[in-house]
Amino acid sequence: MSDPTPFAERVLDLVERIPPGRVMSYGDIAEYLGEGGPRQVGRVMSTWGGGVPWWRVTHADGTPPPGHQARCLARWREEGTPLRGDRADMRHARWHGDLR
Q1: Which of 2, 20, 59, 80 has the least CB density, counted as fewest CB within 10 Å?
Q2: For every one of its 100 residues, what pLDDT tens digit does the chain have, with 9 covering 90 and above?
Q3: What is the Cα–Cα distance from 82 to 11, expressed in whole angstroms?
Q4: pTM above the 0.90 mark?
């Protein structure tokens, strides 16, 4: 696997800063960084995201990454992430960054 691109490094750095019990959507991350889009962030996470708290990155509707639902839910429960059923409650769990 190749080294992360500069964009990927920025995505991974932001994901590392999401506090326990909070989440950001793929689109939130792209918007916060002012570049890319949800798909580009998803590609970064699927390629290089294993070393960061990947479970804190969700779809806009609060659903976990595909194929990782059980592990993600376990992490969310462990961290006290606000939930609505089997998804993150985006109204209460969404992190808006440190507002630079």
Answers
A1: 2
A2: 689 999 999 999 999 999 999 999 999 999 999 999 999 999 999 999 999 999 999 999 999 988 999 999 999 999 999 999 999 999 999 999 875 4
A3: 23
A4: yes
- Give the span between the Cα atoms of 35 and 11, in whole angstroms: 10
Q: In what helix (H) or strand (E) does residue 100 lie, and over which residues does it extend?
A: none
**Structure tokens that stand for 4 in this block:** 């992360």
Q: How far apart are CA 56 and CA 5, in angstroms?
A: 21
How is the chain split into domains, by residue range? 6-93
Q: CATH says 6-93 is which class?
A: mainly alpha
The sign of the torsion formed by the CA atoms of 51, 13, 79, 56 equals: negative
